[in-house]
Amino acid sequence: MRFPLLLTLQASWLTVCVATQHYPTTWGHYDLCKSHGYTDEGPTWYYMACQPEAADMTKYLKVFLDPPNITCGDPPETYCTLENPYMCNNECDAATEELAHPPELMFDFEGRNPTTFWQSSSWKKYPKPLAVNITLSWNKTIELTDDIVITFESGRPEQMVLEKSLDYGRSWQPYQFYATDCLDAFTMEPKTVRDITQHTLLDIICTEEYSRGYVWKNDKTVRFEIKDRFALFAGPKLHNMASLYGQLDTTKNLRDFFTITDLRIRLLRPATGATMVDENNLSRYFYAISDIKVHGRCKCNLHANSCIYDKEKLTCECEHNTTGPDCGRCKRNYQARAWSAGSYLPIPKGTANICVPNSVGPVTRVCDNELLRCQNGGVCVNNVRCQCPPAYTGLLCEKPRCENEPGGCGGSDSGQASLRPPGLILLSLLSVLGPVFLGEICWIL
Ligand SMILES: *[C@@H]1O[C@H](CO)[C@@H](O)[C@H](O)[C@H]1NC(C)=O
Ligand SMILES: *[C@@H]1O[C@H](CO)[C@@H](O)[C@H](O)[C@H]1NC(C)=O
Ligand SMILES: *[C@@H]1O[C@H](CO)[C@@H](O)[C@H](O)[C@H]1NC(C)=O
Ligand SMILES: *[C@@H]1O[C@H](CO)[C@@H](O)[C@H](O)[C@H]1NC(C)=O
Ligand SMILES: *[C@@H]1O[C@H](CO)[C@@H](O)[C@H](O)[C@H]1NC(C)=O
Ligand SMILES: [Ca+2]
User: Fold this and answer.
1) Is the shortest distance between the CB of 319 and ligand 5 below 6 Å?
2) In the chain, where are the structural domains located?
């Protein structure tokens, strides 16, 4: 019997706190929809952004390799040890547990000695590139909350690309390029995360930080720096998360930047440690990865504070009368106004944007500013009457006024057609901005 695992487990939060001690617990502040508190006037609710706890997301992924048979050991092969390239009697054998290096070993518990790792077969077909794709799929939209860290057991690759998908693997975009020589490998100027500013945050860079040096013992990690990017808005110690959340609320590109459904590590050229590849002994060249860290939370559009893993599937526990894998739409019969994401900033500064039942009150409620009944920029007066802009008439301002005039709207369809676009633009504008801004827009128009 398997029980659904709540990602809101207190235990996982403790782990997060320990792992990120130098970052204050501001995170936790926003992680529940509301909590009970007291003021001088008595008990009250304090509201928080409605989102699940951040967690170790590698427990919930599926991993795919391309080419599929690139893992070493089938048939068994020998390769050179990492410390001493002249000792070439290490064996990889997929059929023997102690000598096998399957992909799962990139996600098991690390911290023991010796490490466990996935390993590719060696570069037997040199000079044909030794290219391997490692694809991690969640089948769920995830928001990253901490650096992606890949720890190599071999030397770090001389060329590599981290890619992401937002549409379940249908399309891919680069996240970051890595090379010993960015110009040579990707014709990109080398940069580091320290070159990035608020204005260039969405730029994709090539970095040489994580490729240089054939140093086994020291730094073996390749990173994608999430926290340094957060810090551009939230300050160096992430004290001001509200500032970051304010930006996330208003900037879709920024939200999407930290959002993924899949990641792909494209290994393009293994570490060689020398300018020349030793063609007589290609067993020295291969990829080996001991650990991959991906920390994040289910994206529930600020409409759920927990996410459940059941039957190998992550699902948001949607609130606010929303539904869908990411709480991305209103429930049936709750579609009285357009769906909209909740907000990172808590109530009262932000808004929950709850979905509203279709039939609220008797039908004699002709209109309602919240529910967008008046058309073409009409404004609802006392819920009984739409006050129409000069060009429109009708109960819901649905009719162009020229229709009633002698000669009609220019005597043909074209006149009417030319009057329609403003309404359409208003509607599409509203669906983008959400009902929060509705009042203001109607007045402006
Ligand atoms: C993987 O399979 C392909 C085609 O089936 C073959 O050409 C290639 O040599 C195999 N690679 C390894 C490392 O076994
Ligand atoms: C890896 O993925 C890229 C696209 O992301 C694709 O072009 C390539 O063929 C894939 N396979 C290998 C072995 O590189
Ligand atoms: C992905 O999730 C959807 C439901 O959200 C499900 O219908 C589909 O079968 C899943 N796909 C895979 C490959 O697990
Ligand atoms: C690699 O080189 C070492 C020493 O030069 C040699 O002993 C070993 O047999 C070579 N291995 C292969 C696979 O050629
Ligand atoms: C969902 O709609 C019902 C009315 O059917 C309402 O009572 C409930 O409060 C709504 N939920 C939220 C979170 O607003
Ligand atoms: Ca491992």
Assistant:
1) yes
2) 55-298, 363-401
